[in-house]
Amino acid sequence: MAADGILYNFGANAGHLEDITGMANAIQEVRGDIQSIFQALSTVYEGDGATALNQAHQEVNNMLDEALNTVVNTQKQAQDQQDAMQAMDKANAAAF
């Protein structure tokens, strides 16, 4: 690579995009684990404790939703950029 050139390592980038997809899957797995914990706790608490537990569960679900949406949006934006750069690279190569 020339010192003034740009190298787009599409293969490595694709691997990183797969890593991001793995993060989304990990969030879903954690969500399942947390759901199981809250279900177990819900059999113990009554009254105000049950209400507070339910509220905490909703807050955790909202945080997980936000994290998952952020990861999915990041992956989509990165994939779109990767696709655009590959298309531009092919177009530029065809010009030679």
UniProtKB/TrEMBL annotation:
Coiled coil region boundaries: 50-84
InterPro entries per record: ESAT-6-like_sf
SUPFAM superfamilies, per database record: EsxAB dimer-like (SSF140453)
Source domain of life: Bacteria
Entry keyword set: Coiled coil
Protein name per the record: ESAT-6-like protein
